[in-house]
Structure formats: C-alpha cells, structure tokens
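STRUCTURE:
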C-alpha cells in the first residue's frame, strides 16, 4: 500500500479521531466526514485513498469506540503507523480490517506529506521521499487473514462458509 503521510502527535484519543457527537451512525462515509477534525480541521480535505496516518505514543487512547477505526478506513486511510497504540484501539482496528503498525523509528522520522510504501507481510515501511526504510513487526498469518478479509466478521463468514 502506498500513500502520503498525515502526521499527528502523542495521545491522539478516540474523541480526536471521531468526536462523540457523530456516534449516532456507523456509516463509514458519514463518519469519514468528521475524521480527525478535532486534531486537524483540514484532514478530510487533504486525505486521499491509500494515505497513511502516522501518530506518536498511545494512538487511539480513550474510549473503546469502534467508530474510530471505522472513521479512519471510511476516509480512505490504508493503515496507521505509530510509536504505540492503545490496546483496545489496536484490537478494534484489526477486528475491523484496519492495519496498524508499531514503529517508533518510522513515526519519529516521517514528516507530513512524505510518500510512503508499506508492506504488511514483511512489516517494511519505506519512506519514498527520504529513501529511509523502517521495520515494524509483521502481522501473524491469522491476523493478515482477518485484515485481508476486511475484518473479523467477514473473516468468520468465510471460515464458516468453507467449513460448510
């Protein structure tokens, strides 16, 4: 996956990802209209399909709302790279098919607008702007299957259909 970096700082909580007043829907496109608006009012105007959010420490902290990764994927973001993630946000993201990669070195070095190429299978993050290469822990095969299926629900449907 390839796209431009959109950088954010430490402790970006779920209220900054999707403010509480928009939790009346789970429609990804509707939530996407307000994604990250508290942290960056122009984010939804700049983000393009395939782009990458890069955060600092404890990205996704706060409430356990599933709306946060739904809003991010609805905005077209292909993955999130951060120094660290709140545990519930990390699990919700995988369950909803949003790849999240921990790489403190990448998060420190990547700047707003850098062009990135991310290989989930190997955990390789390439900054095409600076020609730097970073590593994140690659996903276990079963987690890749969940992400590739579009989330845990679709993964489970496929497994049940195959068991027939």
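SEQUENCE:
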């Amino acid at each position: 996956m390839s796209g431009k970096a959109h950088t954010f700082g430490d402790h970006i909580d779920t209220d900054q990802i999707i403010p509480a007043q928009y939790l009346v829907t789970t429609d990804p496109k509707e939530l996407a209209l307000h994604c990250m608006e508290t942290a960056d009012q122009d984010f939804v105007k700049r983000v393009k399909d395939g782009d990458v959010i890069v955060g600092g420490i404890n990205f996704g902290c706060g409430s356990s709302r599933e709306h946060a990764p739904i809003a991010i994927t609805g905005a077209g973001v292909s993955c999130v790279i951060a120094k660290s993630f709140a545990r519930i946000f990390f699990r919700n993201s995988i369950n909803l098919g949003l790849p999240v990669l921990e790489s403190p070195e990448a998060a420190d070095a990547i700047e707003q607008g850098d062009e990135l190429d991310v290989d989930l299978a190997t955990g390789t993050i390439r900054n095409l702007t600076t020609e730097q290469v970073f590593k994140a822990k690659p996903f276990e095969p079963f987690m890749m299957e969940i992400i590739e299926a579009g989330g845990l629900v679709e993964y489970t449907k496929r497994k049940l259909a195959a068991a027939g």
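REMARK: DSSP finds eight helices and seven strands in the chain.
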